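Researcher: I'd like a candidate sequence for this fold, 359 residues long. If you have to choose between options at a position, lean toward the conservative one.
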């Protein structure tokens, strides 16, 4: 169950409901937010989502994602997948090895340029290490790239787009301040990048690859974002429509299956075995045909019927009763066992007649 707070006529009202499907469009963890407890709750409840909660949980730490990108580079080669070099420090105590300067230090898990500092010398690097000590978090370093523009390659379902972004405010972070955005033609190289990244963590329905185009003419992949990626340019409305259509398609497949299973488990939908009509009521004892007399022995007569006698509720007819023979739902093994019992009784009757018949 999920509780949300809404405002109605200036009054805050809490609504509770059980979600059928979840679309995640914001970061699970950021500089001042942490929604992991909700993600775990949705996953615990088996709620389907875009992207999957398994992949979203794996995206909560950028170094964890970078480790997957390193494996992709080993598979594809540095020419096909030009991943930027990165060093990882689990805490400030490990920040003793001085990298080549200038470098970009990224502290913890944050987005939109937060927690990122350009360091030009080892004195500034020592200062940043002291800041990392206060945060009690990990840090990474990357070589500073003097770039021409940022490159954003996105994939929503089977739709691909590519954008370049140039800073016009003078900030070395192109994703902060004023920037000029332009959609560019998608090519096979960019498509291969985003297709390979869409296979991470069991598959990503929405994914974006962020890269840099350096002034040296080289490209550098710096990170990958999941369904929380930002929508850019004049195609944002189209992208929202693509996402909504994909959500509807997923719901038609996943939510219908969940609804059917819930209905079956709650008894709303009966199985074929439950819909089998009940056996007919037993016939009166007086309609039972008398058995044929055996040679040398007296015929056995059935007990006379008792007028008005009824079978107790919940008790079936006795074994051997005609209503049990050929009744709907009767197992063949039970019928076979019943006929064997009758043959045994007939043989016993013949045996007793042979022994006591001459007396």
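Model: Candidate sequence:
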């Amino acid at each position: 169950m999920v509780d949300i707070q809404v405002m109605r006529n200036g009054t805050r009202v809490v609504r509770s409901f059980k979600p059928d499907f979840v679309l995640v469009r914001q970061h699970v963890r950021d500089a001042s937010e942490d929604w992991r407890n909700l993600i775990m709750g949705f996953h615990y409840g088996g709620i389907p989502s875009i992207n999957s909660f398994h992949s979203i949980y794996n995206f909560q730490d950028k170094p964890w994602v970078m480790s997957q990108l390193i494996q992709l580079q080993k598979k594809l080669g540095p020419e096909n997948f030009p991943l930027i070099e990165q060093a990882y420090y689990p805490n400030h105590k490990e920040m003793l090895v001085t990298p080549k300067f200038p470098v970009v230090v990224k502290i913890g898990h944050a987005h939109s340029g937060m927690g990122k500092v350009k360091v030009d010398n080892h004195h500034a690097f020592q200062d940043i290490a002291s800041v990392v000590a206060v945060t009690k978090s990990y840090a990474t370093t990357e070589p500073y790239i003097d770039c021409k523009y940022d490159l954003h390659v996105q994939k929503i379902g089977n739709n691909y787009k590519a954008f370049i972004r140039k800073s016009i405010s003078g900030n070395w972070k192109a994703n902060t301040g004023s920037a000029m955005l332009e959609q560019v033609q998608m090519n096979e190289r960019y498509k291969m990048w985003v297709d390979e990244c869409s296979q991470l963590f069991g598959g990503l329905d929405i994914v974006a690859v962020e890269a840099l185009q350096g002034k040296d003419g080289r490209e550098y992949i710096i990170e990958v974002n999941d369904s929380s990626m930002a929508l850019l340019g004049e195609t944002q409305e189209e992208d929202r429509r693509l996402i909504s259509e994909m959500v509807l398609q997923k719901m038609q497949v996943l939510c219908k299956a969940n609804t059917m299973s819930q209905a079956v488990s709650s008894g709303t939908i009966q199985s074929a075995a439950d819909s089998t009509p009940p056996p007919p009521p037993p016939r009166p004892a007086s309609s039972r045909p008398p058995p044929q007399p055996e040679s040398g022995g007296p015929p056995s007569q059935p007990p006379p019927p008792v007028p008005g006698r009824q079978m107790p509720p919940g008790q079936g007819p006795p074994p051997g009763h005609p209503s049990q023979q050929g009744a709907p739902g009767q197992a063949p093994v039970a019928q076979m066992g019943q006929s064997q019992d009758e043959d045994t009784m007939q043989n016993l009757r013949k045996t007793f007649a042979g022994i006591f018949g001459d007396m």
